[in-house]
Design brief:
It contains one helix and eleven strands. By secondary structure, the protein is of the alpha+beta class. The chain folds into two domains: 49 residues; 98 residues, Immunoglobulin-like (Sandwich), CATH 2.60.40. The mean pLDDT is 86. This is Flagellar protein G.
Length: 150
């Protein structure tokens, strides 16, 4: 009988060691998933707080034939302030990425506070007259589309 008890004790200890290993592995994996979810939620929270609306009137002539510039006005309708610099916004005009845009707060200042309007200007190199155009504005994940005619 003593031999049977020793074998059962060895199997019991082996089962405990295996169970502890599995529990340790699961705990570390749950921690990793939890950290990933926390990081993702911070990114999503930042995107939710950033929101913008194009307030320009498409019929008011956002394109200047003489300077070949497009000028639009955008209001910060999000919950957070944004820097008033070209790195804050991405622009695509008729599917082409726009570089060299200037971003200026209409009331002055360096920060684009909630409720403030910025003027975004960029050169186009010339747009054909009497044609429809599509401008896509992306501000920290928030996308707006603006259609206008030259």
């Amino acid at each position: 009988m003593a031999g049977g008890s020793a074998a059962e004790l060895i199997l019991f200890i082996a089962a405990i060691v295996i169970a502890a290993s599995v529990a340790g592995t699961l705990t570390s994996e749950v921690d990793r998933v939890s950290d990933a979810i926390s990081a993702q939620s911070l990114d999503v929270a930042g995107e939710i707080r950033a929101d913008a609306e194009i307030v320009s009137d498409p019929g008011a002539g956002v394109y200047n034939d003489t300077s070949e510039n497009v000028t639009i006005h955008v209001r910060n309708t999000g919950a957070s302030d944004l820097p008033a610099d070209p790195g804050t916004v991405d622009l695509l005009l008729d599917g082409e990425y726009v570089t060299g845009a200037t971003v200026t707060v209409v009331d002055g200042g360096d920060s684009w506070h909630r409720g403030d309007v910025v003027r975004i200007e960029f050169a186009t190199g010339g747009l054909a007259p009497d044609t429809d155009h599509r401008l896509k504005l992306v501000v920290r994940g928030d996308e707006e589309v603006f259609r206008f005619r030259t």
